[in-house]
């Protein structure tokens, strides 16, 4: 009671402490999430030049995409819908500026002229029924509260028609603006047909070793700043990982094999109702129902089947085909399964046959044509009468099939061509493969009644009927624990790795193969070699993540130890990141300066000699195909040759493969033609190629895009 009294006395203080704790918890959460709170309206997924993209619309479209494309993960849908909505936003901004709109009358026309709609609302006479369509649309609108999903689907359909029509109008306007002039057509004609002959002297860049030139970090940085558009980078992060697979051990496999061996022979089991409480339980060897026995112990449902040698597992075929009825083979491994196989029968059979049939279907038979109205009894009577006629005159089988068959091979005279054993339904298969060439008979299947003629059979060979007990080889609990311990040990050691090089060395030391993965995007969900790995990418993009962080991930098929190697923010590439792209360019430029300095003298020959250049002659070279013998495509060099007067030579030119000087010999200008319109049309087609993609990309480059997906998708 004394304790209770003290608690009551101090209750005000306790409540205050609890309130302060809760307040601190809330404030801590707000501080932690302040970056998210400062990113704008929680109902907006993003903005494009001030045009808001509602979060609710975005989420509905993501859900719909996942429903329609079932193999899409959530992040794949998020990326796809984001791209779609950004494209729509930049285009809609353009539509508004230009006053492009689509009225309801036009929407109705688009619906009425949609081939899919026409097909769905065609009456029995094959005529499109507009009244049925109108009734259907009225029902959708009247029941929009009862069936909101159907209403939403219809509105999405209408909206897609509107968006497509707006885009069509916009793109047509752009295409109409593409009007190359006759002068441009004339230019293209000469571009393709004028030719130049010239001498050249070339010093290849590879004449100078890379070690002679020095490219610094500052050089790379200056080049990037000068060419910023080329070296913009998206946000990305990179990692190295080690995958330690969870696989069954040799001990696990041997255990399964021992269990299967124990199933072969009969065994004595306890039975309280038997004399001496013991009875003999038959094993796989002596069981009277091998198929039922196999299904009792197999991980994979079993059915006894006939096999020819060429259909057996290649590595065991020679042994299995020699077995006799009652023989058991195994246990043996195939991939990640262990088999114990029993031969239940053997016989000589052809492995392929050629046959024809006349199918008499009935109402309700599988795949029966809706036009077939006869019942099963009538179909049987008709098939019996046809059989008698055909047996009397086998030579006319194809004619009867073309006239009477309900099957899809009717036009071929019922010819089914060659097929292998087991390819047809059982009753049909058994009649053909157990019959003789030329035999005609009646077979009933789920498709109806077949009058069958056996046209040909291959030579019989041995076939075996087998059933197997198949056990999947799974890691034991002991193996799982050992694998987990190995992964945990390596993850602990990896915490001491300071660099990617350290992580690689540690992995190699432990016998693992480290895998580098470059430039993973925030909204990706797959990692090469691992497949779906959203949890790893979410960890990689955690706000607190830094280079050198390590974590272990437990997957269904093993364990991943990941090491963060790179964190790149959106913007310009760093000199280190751009080095692989920029360094070769700068090396070439520095080599070019060295080579240019060697081209000294007052004549072409003197300059070539002083530079120790390779001299040659190029003839009939066109701007369209600017190839120099031995050096390949050199458009800048060829263009320079065209610009010089015959006999004149150039200063050193930086080409693709070398530094050149050229001396023009002659220019063969193609004779002017009367009509350049074909070339104008050619240019028009070229300008329009890829127009839509290029326009959208240009609009996106110019747009101010705010991406708030980070607030909602982790």
Q: Helicity level, as a percent range?
A: 40-55%
- What do the pLDDT scores average to? 90
The low-pLDDT segments are 1-39
Global shape:
extended
Oligomeric state, counting identical vs distinct chains: single chain
Integer-rounded radius of gyration? 39 Å
Largest sheet: 4 strands, antiparallel
Task: Supply the helix-strand structural class.
Answer: alpha+beta
State the end-to-end CA separation.
Answer: 52 Å
> What is the strand content?
15-25%
- The number of helical runs is 25
- Record field, number of beta strands: 27
Strand arrangement across the biggest beta sheet: 22-3-26-25
Describe the structure.
This protein has 714 residues and is an alpha+beta fold. The chain has six domains: 13-42; 44-177; 195-216 and 584-668, Chitinase A, domain 3, CATH 3.10.50; 236-247 and 476-569, Chitinase A, domain 3 (Roll), CATH 3.10.50; 250-348, no CATH class; 352-457, Roll (Chitinase A, domain 3), CATH 3.10.50.40. 43% of the residues lie in helices and 23% in strands. The longest helix is centred in the N-terminal third of the chain and has 30 residues, at 148-177. The radius of gyration is 39 Å and the shape is extended. It starts with a helix and ends in a 7-residue tail after the last strand.
